[in-house]
Amino acid sequence: MAKDRVYVFDTTLRDGEQVPGCQLNTVEKIEVAKALELLGVDVIEAGFPISSPGDFNSVVEISKAISEPIICGLTRAVKKDIEVAADALKFAKRPRIHTGIGTSSYHIYHKLNSNPDEIVERAIAAVKYAKSFVEDVEFYAEDAGRSENKYLARVIEAVIKAGATVVNIPDTTGYTLPEEFGAKIRYLKENVKNIDNAIISTHCHNDLGMATANTISGVINGARQVEVTMNGIGERAGNTSLEEVVMILKSRKHLNLQTNINTRRIFNTSRLVSTLMRMPVQANKAIVGRNAFAHSSGIHQDGVLKNRENYEIIDPKTVGINESSIVLTARSGRAALKHRLSILGFTFTKENLDHIYDDFLKLADKKKDISDEDLRALAGKEEAIANNKIHLVRLQVASGKGTIPVATVTLEIEGEEFTATTEGNGPIDAAYSAVKLIVKKKNKVEEFLVQAITRGSDDLGKVHVQIENKGIRYYGFSASTDIITASVEAYIDALSQII
Ligand code: KIV
Ligand code: ZN
Questions:
Q1: Which residue, by CA, sits nearest to atom 1 of ligand 1?
Q2: Residues 451, 339: one domain?
Q3: For 262-331, where are the alpha helices, taking DSSP H only?
């Protein structure tokens, strides 16, 4: 029997990018969009055009740069939003407007100060208005997870009648259980007269850790589009993760469902998104975590050596994890470096490439073989530093048993150099205090994560830092064989974003 197609709607650049501190500039968004196109997603939600001139511009530029996937822009059920989205999508080869309104009692009475009848009218008007600009209109019933099924069915029937091609049933607050969510989709399949004129979409949030389970339950019960983000990034606990849903559908063949995703590109795309958004992937994250395919207990190692399938349900190569991807050495030239970076999804100007090449040679002097992970770290560092207003000029630290750690830091801020010396409870703490003295921006370091890329003591250390300023979070990233330098650079990267 032929497999049914499930469409993959990627919202990394809209719902994913809403995470405070994870904002990308237009060039970075185009890089991600191109990687998503190569990955084989069907729809790219490129932004919420009315929300800011930056978002508007990104939707315009992504529309120009991308050929295959549908490009989608989000709106509220508001005329002006829809006009602005249509304008932003004017260069898209296959444009889609994604409009909608809340349908739960919470949203109807306590957010929109409205009533159920009026909401149905506003939903119909929004779809009809969007339809006057583009053929492909998706409607979302915000907080559908907590909406009453009978009322939800009434709204969905009305918007399909008005011309909606896709109806999105979001579990906005991540509240439902898989069985409930599946039953909701089945209810719509069975009770909305014209449901076969539209595709049902799932859009699940992960507040109770149920996003993937709910999405799969929705698909089993008739949904044929899944709204997902790479690495599951998104507001609060995140959205459904693309890689999990895709690999479930691929691995569990009895479901008889397939996507268009080239799974061998999953790992590279995951790391590109993590690097550009400065959002580390947790080590035990399903499919793309550093430990997802690492077997540490002796019994498991022995079992895998006897037959991989004893303990592995997925061949790591299927998702693009290839242990033997060591490719470059100190003798490799600029062209080889550029080529490899482009395979990993990075594009750089000649000047930025020169910086990376210098860093690459320095690293190759310290380390014999340069892996893809090393290159990603170097590229991520270059991306982080390229637009920053603060640069680390010099760093000197003195620490050791029986001494008080001291750091002297010199920073260049918009062309001027500043130096400070301070003590701390360790060399990083001392250096951070010196940076704080110079930058004078109130902030709190909320998270600090150092990871070695491979295993040796000559390895690159990647540092992710999360800081808080006036209730907003900012993320910083850097990498170096000197982890104190990387720690200071990552902190500066985060501080640069406040400035
Ligand atoms: O979570 C949600 O309800 C959304 C909609 C705007 C689609 O992101
Ligand atoms: Zn959402």
A1: 172
A2: no
A3: 266-277, 298-306
pLDDT in tens, 119-142: 999 999 999 999 999 999 999 999
Q: Order across the sheet with 406-413: list the strands.
A: 390-398, 406-413, 416-423
Determine the distance separating the centroid of ligand 1 and the alpha carbon of 101, expressed in angstroms. Answer: 9
Give pTM, 2 decimals: 0.83
Ligand 1 atom closest to the CA of 15, numbered from 1: 8
Same domain, 34 and 136: yes
Supply the range of the domain harboring residue 107.
7-276
Positive or negative torsion for Cα 456, 324, 336, 281: negative
Which residue's entry shows tokens 């592995």?
312
CATH of the domain at 494: 3.30.160.270
Decide which of 356, 383, 410 is a domain's last residue: 383
How many structural domains compose the chain? 3
- Tell me the per-residue pLDDT of 227-280, one tens digit each, with 9 for 90 and over: 999 999 998 999 999 999 999 999 999 999 999 999 999 999 999 999 898 888
Residue 289 maps to a domain:
no
- Spacing, Cα 372 to ligand 2 middle (Å): 32
Whether the CB of 170 sits within 6 Å of ligand 1:
yes
